[in-house]
Design a protein that fits this description.
Layout: H1 2-37, H2 40-54, H3 66-73, H4 78-108, H5 115-144, H6 149-169, H7 172-184, H8 189-221, H9 229-254
Length: 261
């Protein structure tokens, strides 16, 4: 009797064990699927989506004016500027790929039929340089707000390496075409000529103002008793050069040059 009961008990246990193991395996698989779907990819995707939503759409439009971009960068935080730098890196990378494809086409084109391709290459190069200017504006804003110095240096190294490699691989005609395009562009030679003219005119104006101030100080200090001629000349000279120095700093700051120490 006991032997029969033992056999029945073993049969019942044998029948129940596979079902419990299968149920346990199914529970484990479902838990694993739930675990794999929650952390990693979903979290990073949602974080990237939120990051894109936090940035104004205007600041990563390729056709935005650089002056408007400078204004729109002011309220952005350091983390937002970091995300924006990555977006602009993708923009300039995409345009650089277009430049390289056109340059390869030019290299494979016969000399007599390369005028159109060369003009297209020059135009693409000009557009890419304008994008690089906006890219640099984002990096400068990021740096001013305490961004990662090493990361910013890597971003700038990317730009420098591309310019060096493109110049090294370009032929003489392409370099001449780029130089002419830069000299006649609003953001290139024309802007440089305007800046140089403003500096020269401002310096001449500062010389006139400093001379007037020196003349006024000489008249005023002549009425102060007990001051030697040597000390008078020293004070007048110091005032003259201070007026010139601060005037030049103001002019350079107005032109966008960073004069802070």
């Amino acid at each position: 009797m006991l032997f029969v009961c033992a056999l029945l008990l073993c049969g019942v246990m044998t029948a129940l064990l596979p079902r419990s193991s299968v149920a346990q395996d199914q529970a484990t698989d479902s838990a694993a699927q739930e675990g794999s779907s929650t952390p990693g990819n979903d979290a990073s995707a949602s974080a990237e989506g939120k990051a894109d939503e936090s940035l104004p759409a205007k600041v990563f439009q390729p056709d935005i004016d650089i002056e408007e971009l400078d204004f729109r960068l002011v309220p952005l935080t350091k983390d937002e500027l970091k995300q924006l730098a990555e977006k602009w890196l993708r923009i300039v990378k995409s345009k650089t790929e277009e430049v390289m494809e056109t340059q390869l086409t030019l290299a494979k084109t016969a000399d007599g039929a390369d005028v159109t391709v060369r003009e297209s290459l020059t135009e693409l190069h000009t557009e890419r340089n304008q994008l690089f200017n906006k890219y640099s504006a984002v990096l400068n804003a990021w740096e001013k707000k305490g961004g990662d110095v090493a990361a910013i240096a890597d971003y700038r190294a990317y730009r420098s390496s591309i310019i060096v490699e493109e110049t090294r691989k370009a032929d003489f005609k392409t370099l001449v075409a780029r130089a002419v395009a830069w000299l006649t562009s609003k953001d290139g030679g024309i802007q440089l000529a305007k800046g140089f003219g403003i500096i020269v005119a401002s310096f001449l104006g500062l010389l006139i103002v400093a001379g007037l101030v020196r003349r006024f100080v000489r008249r005023w200090i002549g009425h102060v008793p007990n001051i030697s001629n040597l000390l008078q000349a020293f004070i007048i000279g110091v005032v003259y050069w201070i007026v010139l120095a601060f005037g030049l700093m103001a002019v350079l700051s107005a032109l966008g040059v960073d004069t802070t120490p």
